[in-house]
Design goal:
Blueprint lengths: L1 H16 L1 H22 L5 H19 L3 H20 L6 H22 L5 H26 L3 E3 L3 E5 H22 L3 H29 L14 H22 L9
Antiparallel strand pairs: 1-2
Helix pairs in contact: 1-2, 1-6, 2-3, 2-5, 3-4, 3-5, 4-5, 5-6, 5-9, 6-7, 6-8, 7-8, 8-9
């Protein structure tokens, strides 16, 4: 709890400050998750681990420097490079390696793209962060209080249907609160919030599959009492990608939608 009490306000402050502060936050997160992914998949080669970190961070840096086309090209190109090198590295799973590089880089690009909206960028990223945190909190609380049938026992034995519904309730409350605060239409923002909540929970399941595949409990011990960055941000990755897709499809951020 102490780690979360320090890191959450820091992250929110950097989001609100925006600009280079938010870019630095995303770059550090991408590098940390890249290192954890290399560790998770069992690599022992520094060269391979370094390439995964580069695959996660270089596209983000390119976008931050105003080169979006290069960023879009770098993300898949570096993932392919990871696969090529991993094929020759002992103990590495090339397919998981390449997929992991894309799984980290693309949502990080999405976060920067969402934040770049001059009108609602900061609020949109804040909404994303708080929605995912509310989903995690609601799922944990409801799962502990009500228990019940398992959501996906083969993928994650601890997740329950009651927890999944609790996460959706948490996201709904956040969407309603953001609608009041920002002036967005609640009837437009709430369905988007529910979609982000479902996406975040799918992200949790994806990482659970990866951890079971490689026989580890946590992605790392970077955050005392909370595991690693991937353990905390797995849901954020999928939710960020979905928020970017919703924004592209509608031509505007969900915070600007009208019912």
């Amino acid at each position: 709890m102490a780690s979360a009490a320090v890191l959450a306000p820091l992250a929110l402050a950097l989001v609100w400050l925006g600009g280079p502060y938010f870019v630095a936050l995303v770059l550090v997160a991408a590098a940390g998750m890249g290192w954890e992914w290399a560790r998770l998949t069992g690599w022992r080669s520094r060269r391979v681990a370094g390439l995964v970190v580069l695959a996660a961070t270089l596209p983000v840096l390119a976008l931050a420097l105003g080169m979006p086309h290069l960023a879009v090209v770098l993300a898949p190109a570096l993932a392919i490079a990871v696969w090529v090198v991993a094929v020759r590295a002992p103990g590495a799973d090339a397919a998981w390696a390449a997929l992991g590089a894309v799984w980290i880089a693309v949502p990080c690009l999405a976060c920067l793209w969402i934040a770049a909206d001059a009108e609602v960028g900061r609020r949109a990223v804040l909404w994303l962060f708080v929605t995912v945190w509310a989903t995690d909190t609601g799922a944990f609380a409801a799962g502990r209080c009500f228990g019940g049938p398992r959501l996906a026992p083969r993928l994650s034995p601890n997740k329950t249907w009651s927890g999944a519904l609790g996460g959706i309730v948490g996201a709904t409350v956040v969407a309603w609160g953001f609608a009041l605060w920002s002036g967005a239409a609640a009837m437009a923002l709430i369905p988007a919030g529910i979609a982000l909540s479902v996406a975040a929970q799918c992200g949790d399941l994806v990482e659970s599959v990866a951890k079971r595949r490689f026989g580890v409990k946590d992605s790392s011990g970077l955050i005392p009492g909370h595991g690693g960055l991937l353990d905390r941000l797995d849901g954020m990755l999928v939710a960020a990608a979905l928020q970017a897709l919703l924004t592209l499809a509608a031509g505007a951020s969900p915070l600007a939608w009208q019912a």
